[in-house]
Design a protein that fits this description.
This protein has seven helices and 22 strands. By secondary structure, the protein is mostly beta strands. It has one domain: Adenovirus Type 2 Hexon, domain 4 (Distorted Sandwich). The strands form six sheets. Strands 1, 2, 4, 8 and 11 form a five-stranded antiparallel sheet that branches.
């Protein structure tokens, strides 16, 4: 039997014949794209921002080196306000529109998802440095009581302003692992942002702030634009004409909302997901009353609701085979399954701000999730997740809890997404 480990080779440090390939000639420019429907936006009027990505012909966009920037002004004349987690809190919904006006990607309750991801995947060192520097991120471990006083974000005084820059990482289109050939489209891709109400996305210093509200100005999507040689562009056009289009793989979140009644004792929550490759599902419970409370972190205040067991029922199959168990004194299994859902269970470099105490408390930072991908740790393949699209299988979250208040359950389904840039200048997405 052949054993490749018996084959001898020089270490990479002395493989002098191995050199990197020379790059194709190209020029990078950083450009600002502004909204085409106004210069200022508020949470109550003119609260939808539309930013066309009007790049030049034959240009590509490096979205992973791009970000949203804006200045936010506190409109209250009497009370200070703080971000809930960071500047993403003002984004209720983020939608990407294709050249023909159809929807490529649509993530609702973006701010709730962002707060969850930052709590569980961003370390305190990052929050205290780059997160605080560019996003307005809070710098402390989330407190079990998420009051204004315990919020570690910078206070925005009445009438005062601060500026932030936000990498829109949860967005699949704007975090693709390839340059987007937007200069070959027949019209512009559009970033559409719906603003969240001030009373739900900001933490105010009193429960009854005077005229709570905010204004966004200087809103731009700051993008790195790549221009190649005319020969490269001709080759690309010839290639896309011959094969009909190019595909880019990425991933996206879909949000499904259900309601849990006060004193409910069993979970039976239907999730109308129809994706053909679900990688993970993350679950966030928030009390309905907290969502509209003005002087708490309503986006990131999550409930445990005495959850003791859960699993997914898909058609007649159960995932996992046995329920995931937990309690108010021991939720290590729930925590392990949650980090498996990030495909980072054994990765000690993964940051996080949620402590054991904060995870166990009845009201704090609790969340739960499940990994549904066959090859979760293999980045060389796609679409190894659970397929519920081809057969229309119902997805149901089942389990045991004791709800201590009317609760909104957000189920965020993370799935593979394929973007196809067609030879006629269009782009379509497939989940």
């Amino acid at each position: 039997m052949y054993n490749k480990y018996n084959k001898m080779a020089n270490p990479s440090g002395v493989q002098y014949s191995t050199v990197l390939n020379r790059a194709t000639p190209a020029i990078k420019q950083t450009r600002k794209f502004s909204a085409n429907n106004g210069a200022t936006f508020t949470d109550s009027t003119n609260n939808i921002i539309r930013i066309p990505l009007a790049v030049g012909s034959f240009q590509f966009v490096d979205t992973r080196a791009s970000y949203l920037s804006f200045t936010i002004t506190n409109n209250s004349t009497a009370q200070d306000a703080k971000f809930d987690t960071n500047g993403n809190c003002v984004i209720q919904r983020l939608r990407i529109e294709s050249p023909d006006g159809s929807t490529l990607e649509d993530i609702t309750d973006w701010n709730v998802l962002n707060a969850f991801l930052h709590d569980y995947t961003q370390g305190l060192d990052n929050a205290a440095t780059i997160g605080g520097m560019i996003e307005g991120q809070g710098t402390a471990i989330p407190n079990t009581t998420k009051s204004y006083a315990n919020n570690s974000c910078v206070a925005i005084g009445e009438g005062a302003s601060i500026s932030v820059c936000l990498p829109l990482a949860p967005c699949g289109v704007l975090n693709a692992n390839r340059y987007l050939p937007l200069g070959f489209l027949r019209s512009n891709l559009v970033i559409e942002i719906h603003l969240a109400p001030a009373v739900t996305c900001l933490n105010w210093e009193t429960a009854t702030p005077a005229s709570p509200g905010y204004t966004l100005s200087n809103v731009n999507y700051v993008a790195d634009i790549i221009s190649f040689s005319s020969q490269f562009n001709q080759n690309y056009e010839q290639m896309i004409s011959n094969i009909g289009g190019v595909q880019i793989s990425t991933q996206t979140y879909s949000n499904y909302i259900t309601n849990i009644a006060n004193a409910q004792s069993a979970l039976a929550e239907l999730i109308p997901a129809r994706q053909k490759s679900i990688k993970s599902i993350f679950f966030i419970m928030r009390h309905t009353a907290d969502i509209s409370t003005k002087n708490i972190d309503s986006l990131s205040t999550r409930q445990r609701n005495a959850l003791t067991a859960f699993q997914l029922k898909v058609g007649g199959a159960l995932f996992p085979a046995s329920q995931v168990q937990g309690s108010s004194t021991n939720s290590s299994e729930m925590g392990a399954e949650l980090y498996k859902a990030f495909a980072r269970l054994a990765d000690t470099s993964l940051g996080g701000k949620v402590t054991r105490a904060n995870y166990l408390t009845a009201e704090g930072s609790f969340a739960f999730g499940l990994d549904l991908e066959a090859f979760a740790n293999d980045s060389s393949v796609i679409e190894s997740g659970l397929n519920v699209g081809s057969q229309g299988l119902p997805v149901e979250l089942i389990g045991n809890l004791t709800s201590d208040g009317a609760t909104q359950l957000n189920s965020y389904v993370l799935s593979d997404m394929i973007l196809t840039f067609t030879s006629d200048g269009g782009v379509i997405s497939s989940l």
